[in-house]
């Protein structure tokens, strides 16, 4: 069986699943069904995630379970993150241009704002 396509091969927009079928009892269900980022994962990625969840995300336990080194496990985790459509290490935060970010850090460095105020400003809150 092939993995579910999540993007249109022509325009790259998100695909909507409109039909589900059971080969065992021949039941067909039609409607609009949306997939999740997990639908983009290969079987190997899903097996990796299963181990990750089972060991509660503890990479040291994954090393023993999978017989892989820490860097290899981190690389595989980054592969999974990318397959889900995210960028590893990139937090969901407001777009803050570099000049504004540097200005906030300079204010913090000069003691004109507190660390808490800097954190709020960097997260997009107004001071």
Assembly annotation: single chain
User: In which order are the strands of the major sheet placed?
Assistant: 1-2
Largest sheet: number of strands, sense, barrel closure: 2 strands, antiparallel
Structural class: mainly alpha
> What fraction, in percent, of the residue positions are helical?
40-55%
SSE run: EEHHHHH
Which strand-content bin applies to the residues? 5-15%
Low-pLDDT residue intervals, each spanning 5 or more residues: none
Distance between the termini: 54 Å
Radius of gyration: 22 Å
- Average pLDDT for all residues: 85
Query: How many DSSP-defined strands?
Result: 2
Q: What overall form do the CA principal axes indicate?
A: flat
Number of helices: 5
Molecular structure report:
This protein is mainly alpha-helical and 127 residues long. Among the domains are: 39-83; 93-127, no CATH class. It is 43% helix and 9% strand. The chain has 5 helices and 2 strands. It has helices at 43-54, 59-66, 70-83, 98-109, 115-122; strands at residues 17-21, 28-33. Strands 1-2 form a two-stranded antiparallel ribbon. β1 and β2 (28-33) form a beta hairpin. α4 (98-109) runs antiparallel to α5. The longest helix is centred in the middle third of the chain and has 14 residues, at 70-83. The termini are far apart. The model has no long low-confidence stretch (mean pLDDT 85).
